[in-house]
Amino acid sequence: MNDQKAGDEVAVNGRLPLGALTLDLGCGDLFGADGRPAPLRRQALEVLLVLGRRANQVVTKDELMSAVWPAVVVGDGSLAAAVADIRRVLGDGEHLLVRNIARRGYMLVPSPSHSGPVPSSVAQPRPAWGRWVAASALLLAMVVALVVWTRGKPAIQSDKALSIVVLPLKAEGAWPDTEAFADVLHNDLIAEASRFEASTVIARGTAATYKGRGVDPREVARELQVRHVVSGSLRRDGDKLRLSLTLVDGESGVQRWSEVFEFERALLGQTVDEAVRELARALYIQAWKSAAVRAAALSPSQVTGDDLATRAMGLWFRGLNRDNVLGLLALAEQAVATDPDSARGWGMIAIGNVQALNNNWIEGAEARSAARLRAEQASAALDRIAPDGFFAMQARVIEAYNRSEFPTMLQRARLWVERHPHPVALGALGAALFHNDQPEAAVVALERALRLSPLDSFRAEWMYRLAWSHYIVGNLDRALEWSRRARATNPLLPWPPVEAASLLQLGQRAEAQSVLNEFRRRHPSFDHAAIGRRLSGDSPRFAAARSRLLDDLTELGMK
Known about the structure:
Blueprint: H1 3-13, E1 15-18, E2 21-24, E3 29-31, H2 42-53, E4 59-60, H3 61-68, H4 76-90, E5 98-101, E6 105-108, E7 162-166, E8 170-172, H5 178-193, E9 199-201, H6 204-207, H7 217-224, E10 228-237, E11 240-249, E12 255-264, H8 265-296, H9 305-316, H10 322-338, H11 343-358, H12 365-385, H13 390-402, H14 406-419, H15 423-435, H16 439-452, H17 459-473, H18 476-489, H19 498-505, H20 509-522, H21 528-534, H22 540-555
């Protein structure tokens, strides 16, 4: 395979061979030959992903700095360190994979052939806990914890895949208010984590008994019968707060995720509520990835419906692409066949089917009709199992969307956000709002979803929804910006090419044509009918914007 063919492969399957490793752009991770994520720091992984999305092209240092450190002032040393880390993990001592382009930047040149198996999400879901889901700069609120070795307790017996204790945050430094502030954050984080669907979170009163004690996370997990231990500390340095957060598998002691942040102390009072929610969302995603790793390691005789549903959720958090969605649907169907009362299993069936429909990953009128029916059956099952739960409310929104009952969808989405103010619910509210001719309000909801979970596996979908909301309003510059960000985040997601239409209306016809040609190369079967299915509805502003979109794309050659 020559360099150009390697670049073509990205557009087809989103996977790049890099020596003995494989970069999966769809789920945003680097995998070894055994299918496990490679030990690459978060910033280094993000640099590699930017280079991978533009394989065989020069990416300037300014572009890399802007993409990976958008709100932070850092020097060239940070980028150089990230590139050195990438080369170390890839074994690229001769700089054949990551090449320096003098006075310009870097270029990723994929290997001429695969030297190891590419992870397959459908046939065999791989374990992945990732480093790429983390809180943003507004979050910035927690840090590393307490370790001492002890023994002798029974094995963990929790029946919940997602069972967590958040240990008290250790206050460091001499500032008198740091400890009080750490206690407040600890309390708020536990309160928010307690909202996680189908989870057990140890109450603050019990967690607080570990304050000031040097403890082994494995011992804590055994004592409290939980599967995950979160620990952290907080330090004030002048006008800044420095924090980190660590998630540990309570049985193996393996650290699944850790991040360190700095932020302005003066700004925290304005954003503490959303900061804690964002942190909780990052924890939620990482804990489910860790739980999926555990479930995948079970022997066939140990596997339960809950284990299968946990693996399905692990695939969902790996990234939104065809393989992951079809893989999670297969696992979710096994889950509900094993346990008809699996709320997670039915929840994955509902969301998996609507995404497969929206993105044309199910072909044929009969199969599409069956997928819509299955989503409705999932909604009915969830109404029976847990009518006020997160998944039941999500399934009701999906049901209204599939029936094109958009006023009902909006009503249900508002109630979902009220009961469960999660980013996913806010993203659904954004879609319901623009379907009901309220694109300005949709922008607010979708931007908040991205603030709360800026590296969510679903974020490219929210970005596309933002692009469409701006397109309805006629704010073409913003529509173009969000379309480009969405495409860079997940090039495998077949959303209507708002980017090409925006460029045409802005008078940039040649670039519009180039963007559309590239889109059609990635998604050759995408046509006007696919746009009609994705953007159905007859609200006046919405329908007028869809007509403009279709006219623009027709002018550029799409049929």
